[in-house]
Amino acid sequence: MSLKQDKAWFGLLLTGVMTFLGGCGNDSLRELEENLATVMKEAGPSVVCIVAKNDKTGNTKIGSGVILEGGYILTTENILVNVNNITVKLQDGTVIPDDGVKKVFCDFETNVSLLQVEAKDLKPVKIMDEGKIRNVTLGIALGNTNYSKGLQVSMGTVSHSWIGGADAYDENLLIWNGAKVPYPCGTPVFNSKGELVGITEGKPKEEDGVVFMLPATTCMRVSEVLRKDGQVRRGWIGIYAKGKCGESDRAKVGAGVLIDEIAEESPAFKSGLKAGDRIIKFNGEPIENSAHLRKLVSASQVGSQVILTIIPDGERRAKQVLIKTAQYDGLGMRRCPHRSI
Question: Thinking of the domain 1-232, which architecture would CATH place it in?
């Protein structure tokens, strides 16, 4: 089903819900209103507005974020990239100026960012349990706009997408189907219990009613690494297993990975791997496809040695390969499944 079809189905769903509630009388509408108010009261103090500026260019970006334990604020990397002045506004009116933002951590690949701030009485958000998101999960987006006094509330549904999931720290993106969110980047979306489902990261072109979301579980996994190490270091061996970015990965499960190209002076190059070799095992684990290999390599500790089982000319061989830090090839494309592995 296309995104446009998803939006159409959501419109029908919302119409049906409102028709049902209307048929049930004003009590049901009041109950819905009270439930939304409860979520706002519970989760609202954890929502922040972020104003990020580049003083040299004059460019200003406005987004949202949500408070985590330990004085950290979760938001998206695309808000914080290429800025040098960050202001955070809390719901009680407190403004944390740029000098109150002590550290900024960003991970380009997953689009997860953290701000470490100096402020008192911050209320951390509650996180939804992993694995409980269904395609009928109700989503409640909370955030500020240029025109609202206080928080704005939008309601919709959350569903799963096929985008992402090839990185060791990443899961498939979620999709917000519903009314316009306050800001397409960093706006937190909660379930009916006031628990964080995810944060919005942007919308596809020409799709007004659909916004992509980072799952809360991805955000917490990456946030833990950023807090500890300051960055996410991914493993890399330097092979290309598919064509250029944008093509779908149609490798058959269990077929291994056929090497198209080797990056010069990469660990794979130095270990004697060649274009045309097929990688069938990684440290003894059978390889399903290039996405599976990428996840295994990405999760490997930089500086470690791994054993790749290959079939160069119909004969199995084992190659020991050094894991180095992942290179991004200058493509500037997030979650590109056909970057070098």
Answer: Beta Barrel (2.40)
Task: Determine the 3-state secondary structure of 111 from DSSP.
Answer: coil
Residue 138 in contact with residue 155, Cβ under 8 Å? yes
- Name 288's Cβ contacts closer than 8 Å, sequence gap at least 6: 251, 253, 254, 255
| Residues in contact with 86: Cβ distance below 8 Å, sequence separation at least 6, in sequence order | 50, 51, 52, 53, 80, 98, 101, 104, 115
Q: How many CA atoms lie within 13 A of 321 on its CB side?
A: 32
Does domain 235-325 fall under CATH 3.40.50.150? My reply is: no
Q: Give yes or no for a contact between 204 and 300, defined as CB atoms under 8 angstroms apart.
A: no
Residue 153 has pLDDT above 70, yes or no: yes
232-277 confidence digits (pLDDT tens): 999 999 999 864 344 444 444 457 899 999 999 999 999 999 999 9
Domain ranges in the chain are 1-232, 235-325
Residue range 168-175: average pLDDT?
88
Structure tokens at 96: 């944390």
Give the C-alpha distances (Å, rounded to integers) separating 80 from 64, 185, 223: 11, 10, 15
Q: Other C-beta atoms within 10 Å of 67: how many?
A: 24
- 179 versus 213: the higher-pLDDT residue is 213
Count of other CB atoms within 10 angstroms of residue 159: 21
Report which residue type is found at 283: N
Average pLDDT score, the chain:
84
What is the tens place of the pLDDT at every residue in 7-56? 444 454 454 455 545 555 577 888 888 888 888 899 999 999 999 999 99
Q: What is the DSSP string of 179-223?
A: SPPS-TTT-EEE-TTSEEEEEEEE--TT-TTEEEEEEHHHHHHHH
Please write the tens of the pLDDT for every residue from 297-318.
Answer: 999 999 999 999 998 877 889 9
pTM value surpassing 0.85: no
Cα separation, 101 vs 116, in Å, equals: 6
